[in-house]
Design a protein that fits this description.
Blueprint lengths: L21 H12 L4 H4 L4 H22 L4 H20 L5 H13 L3 H12 L11 H23 L3 H22 L1 H6 L7 H6 L7 H5 L4 H24 L7 H20 L12 H12 L2
């Protein structure tokens, strides 16, 4: 049997008090992780909230396998364990606390197996040789795996209508991931990663593949500004999709969207000459967003 603690994110091991109740254990782990998504998730009714906590815990678990220290072989084995656990989830034989909570969510809300596997495939893209200067097609595939697939799982938990829900997942997932890429330029460069698209770098006259050299190039702002505009267009597309959904079903999406949109606005206002200068929202701002966009 798989050791459940090894499949939980390092910062989210289960507490003894939560043992015996997978949903309660997962929620406790999410609280300890400090995610800004927590209060958005809390806006959902209990069964849907439990489903979102399980999805979040799954994503954190597979993400940590790739990002934490370890050999490529060990990381590949960890992701393979999760692929097997997802198979067990859909066969009714989950062996981990996260898996058992996911099985409940799948039974209630009909998440698709391929979306869970797409998340794992996306994390695998960050294994081995760091991703540098992906083509626009590669960048889109990466965003679709690590973010849009999560969105497709999430809109099932939210209870949105299928068609606008799919459009919402696609637009918001891409908006979030592009914002993450712009926010984490310096951090990713330190890991040897560079997610800015090759075609746009070439058009701006940036030929280097070394992340640090690219971040110091005077034309960096042209590429980042272009990516920021694309992210803004996805936020606008997501807003149009949310307008077609019942208000209660998209309250968490509205809160999370507003948080990320404001981060993007601050990145644009900061500029790209010092991508190592951090940009974030304070807890008070996030709480006000949750109150304003989650309760109206």
């Amino acid at each position: 049997m798989t050791d459940a603690s090894r499949l939980l994110p390092a910062a989210a091991h289960l507490s003894p008090a939560a043992a015996g109740d997978p949903d309660a254990a997962i929620e406790a782990a999410v609280v300890r992780s400090g995610t800004s998504f927590y209060w958005a998730m809390r806006l959902l009714p209990a069964p849907r909230r439990a489903a979102m906590f399980a999805i979040y815990a799954f994503c954190r678990a597979v993400d940590d396998i790739v990002d934490e220290p370890g050999t490529p072989a060990a990381k590949a084995a960890g992701l393979a364990e999760w692929r097997a656990e997802i198979d067990r989830v859909f066969a009714g034989r989950a062996e981990t606390d996260i898996g058992r909570s996911l099985a409940l969510a799948v039974g209630r809300f009909g998440m698709a197996r391929e979306d869970f596997l797409a998340v794992i495939d996306g994390m695998a893209m960050d294994m081995g040789e760091p991703l540098r200067r992906p083509s626009l097609a590669e960048l889109e595939l990466y965003c679709d795996r690590v973010a849009v697939a999560v969105g497709l799982l999430s809109v099932r938990a939210f209870g949105t209508p299928p068609e606008p829900g799919r459009r919402l997942a696609r637009a918001l997932g891409r908006a979030f991931q592009l914002t993450n890429i712009l926010r984490d330029l310096a951090e990713d460069a330190g890991l040897g990663r560079l997610y800015l698209p090759d075609e746009w770098l070439s058009e701006a006259g940036i030929a280097d593949s070394d992340p640090a050299a690219v971040l110091g190039h005077p034309a960096l702002g042209a590429v980042c500004g272009r990516l920021a505009l694309r992210a803004r267009s996805y936020f606008a597309e997501a807003a149009r999709a949310m307008a077609e959904c019942p208000r209660a079903s998209v309250r968490p999406a509205r809160v999370i969207s507003e948080v990320y949109r404001r981060v993007l606005d601050r990145l644009i206002a900061r500029g790209w000459s010092r991508p190592d200068r951090p940009v974030s929202l304070g807890k008070a701002t996030k709480l006000l967003i949750a109150l304003r966009y989650g309760l109206i």
